[in-house]
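Help! Submission page says 'invalid entity' but I think these are all valid:
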Amino acid sequence: MSQRAFVIGHPVAHSRSPLIHRYWLNSLNLDGSYEAIDVAPADVPPFVERLRGGEFAGGNVTLPLKEALFAAVDESDAAATRIGAINTVIVEDGRLIGRNTDMTGFLASLDAAAGNWVGENAIVLGAGGAARAVVEGLVSRGVKKVSVLNRTPSRASLLASRYAKEVKAGLLMDFTQLSEAASLVVNTTSVGMGGTQFDKLTLKALPKTALVADLVYTPLETPLLRDARARGLKTVDGLEMLLQQAVPGFAAWFGKTPEVTPELRELVLNDLEGTR
Ligand code: ATR
């Protein structure tokens, strides 16, 4: 039987997930489908019932439904439970299994840029949903010190309080001082979208070996990444994470592990540029 998968969100029309998954379905010559479905938060319960009915092999979940689907599934792994959100659902005999592949996709994007990335000390900018997935990923990789710096200090403190002493909360103004010992900087805020930039945030004190990652991918080269590149630092763009997070879901629903190829990057990049 041909497998069906979906991405749900509200709105969902901007999602690049159909483009990515349909590219893989075509290139692997698989008989399946992937569709975008707009589900308003109030319509999650009937949609979950549809899922239990076995219409779909599973799908992706985007904003603002990641927490609601986490609450609705029958089981999630420990990482998704700590993050409190999922972006991937797998349906098995009417049971719903939730996973957070934003976290594993983020780690895979670091690995794609820097071999098997290992580091001791990381700075995460932002304390929202994306930051939760990134922090969980870094802690699961054994990073000994993760500094979460946020405009609103209480959100950073709340995130740090979910972990033992390896995660510390701070302010964006702490960046310069903390960056002297950092091997990784990750921007999880929306700063960078449309070319916006942080006030007074300079990478000048970062070690030359540090990696700078940005989850924002419009533009692909944010001012933060441009600055990093100009300083000779290695960078990881947000498109890599977007592509990497899609791999495990596709493998679970359609039974073949797809590859993130330069051709796929180009396809999504052209699509992003066409709609700007
Ligand atoms: P997401 O789920 O995508 O992470 P979110 O939960 O709304 O989205 O979080 C957005 C993050 O971007 C927050 O850390 C937010 O900081 P606040 O907690 O202070 O709101 C951060 N952010 C958004 N705009 C910002 C700006 N202009 N300067 C600094 N941080 C910003």
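Support: the input was valid. A stray whitespace character was the problem, and the output above is from the cleaned input. The longest helix spans residues 238-254.
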